[in-house]
User: Fold TBC1 domain family member 23 from Pristionchus pacificus.
Amino acid sequence: MDEEISEGTSTLDDEWVKAGDASLGSSSINTSKNESSSISDGGSPAGMESEGRGAKWGRLLGVLNRPDPNSYEWDHLFNLRSQSILRNDCRQLAKKINNTKSVPELESFFTLYCKMRSIDYQRNNGWMEIYERLVRVPMATDQLFHIFYAVTTKFVPRDTRKNSAIYDLFRLILQYHDPAVCSKLETLKCAPLNYAKEWFNTVFASHMDEGPCHVLWTHYFERGDPFLIFFMGLVLVVNSREEILNYPIDEKEKLGTFIEGLARNLTEEDVADFVDLAVFYSQRTPQCIKEARYLPSYDFHCMIFGANLLDEFNEVSLSKLICFPISNQELMRRERSGDSAIRYFIVDCRKTDLYRRGNVPGSFSLDCQLMVDAPDQFAIGVNSLKKYKSDQRPDDHYCFIGYGDELDDQHMIMVVAKLLAEGTPHVCVLDGGFKSLHGYLSSIHQLGKLHAHDPTICELCGGHGQHGHQTTGVLSLVSRLSKVVVSKGSTMKGKMTEMVNSRSMPEGITMHVSAKDRHGKKYRKSSQQVFSIDGESSEDELPHSSSVYTLKGEEKEKLLLASFMSQAEVIDSFECRELIGDKQLPAHIALTRTHMHILRDCVDQPGYATTTARLLLSTVYNVTCRKKIPEVLTFKFGYETEIGEPTITSIHRFYIPMAGECAKAVKTAIYAIRPLPNEGKEETRPTSTGAGLENFSL
Assistant:
């Protein structure tokens, strides 16, 4: 019966197992306390202390007075996919516990456990080691089952395989407290998987003697914090810091085994101090790992210990995190609490002008973009920061606040990576950056907690007056695009200026058309181009006036967009957003031979739109785009007086993803409506429109 059984469906008769199934019945449970007193404790005295330990574990785990596990309705069939593997492992376990439990009893125990959790058995998952430690403590069989169930579901991570999130989380914890050791282990390619897997799988049972293991479990269950096992592992690694940093490179293959076996050195007397150290490190680590409600994107508890929630939880990769993220709630709570174990030294990495418009009180301004644009100035800032922190706030933890955007925060990430490479401990970033913090404070009407915050000039407040409660924490599309382009610095500005100037007409050449060639309006006496790039004027300087050609009687009529665009008269159309004040309204521009139609999308009825304006192409006075945001086109409609004075009748501004194509189509349509020159007469085309098209090719 001791021969190995290959993986697959068992070919043995299950009748011999059903005798073990009866061992979980009520009759055996009633007498199990007496029977358990004969179990050998492997050299440990089986006195009142051991008996009290089982009861204490049951109380700490909240499983006292649980119903008989056999009351669970199951099919009593031993037909797990890995049943033969389970049976073979039960034989090995029976030998280790001196056959105090028979193989049928053990197989019934684990089969019922698997059926209750709707999972299959997997070899080397730590169950056998945990059961071996539990069974040596006298307790009733049903109590043993409930304690085993609680330990394996509350304190053992649900996934300990390669690439599991537990190893990334342990790396983040180790890096937070000792980045030098973390870097050394990564250099030697000794990942947490190489030494911590059995710690998590067996709750240290496989690498500790029975006595210290039982004492450790008592402390662990009493604390009730499943994440404490990560900090127990941290204590083992940090306390062997010198050995790890000086470990010979030519023996790096043995480093994982060395670290894995560190727990064997613990005695029963050492356990209390060991756990206290773990609690110490836990309290000095960002609490976001335990507060899923504050960081829903990183629900660490569900990610690490969630049981049977794989279909309900979308796991986030922790391997991409450069350091710990903390929540807005934790940052503000730590700032309010004077007796907190953690105080944050806040480094605001945004531009100086944004910092001055609103910041967290007591924060240090460090424009991280200077790391690239002005390295010498940046070095001075970093040195000042380090000196101030070491002199005034040496025990505070670093908390970096960025914009809250992956693109804009690249320089901040570079600074954080540099600090970690230098071995600087206790470095974290605010999840979502200042944008998220602003949104959080706005949602609870506490924007007044920000220093020097003025809602009238704060771009995140969206220009909603002095209260700013309508803030969503998201920049407007135009502001967002503007910020991205501006971040490129003066280089882009210089290139665009050079390209625009290179396309201008030579000095001294002025080209005209005769007055009779004018179509739809008087001869334009001003030299302003129809199509141009507006590089300096602010958008706020341009008035927003409704068009005199706005439809009065039909402006509320809803049109089917697809039907309207398919009309033969429509020669081109462009999807866009009409910019009115701080609003962005989904719209479409449709061009016919003689008119420009502005169709505003019906938000409540997708696919439909209302015609808000129909404007003559012959009244297009000026079309400009912004240097910084070429996708934003401003159309001015009007005419010139007899003396050449411009009269603007309406202005419409749009954000058009295909702005260049739109400008080209408008220009082509304008040229198409011009009359042909009289035969035999020379005509010189005006320069303004042609130059404008070249500008839009940018």
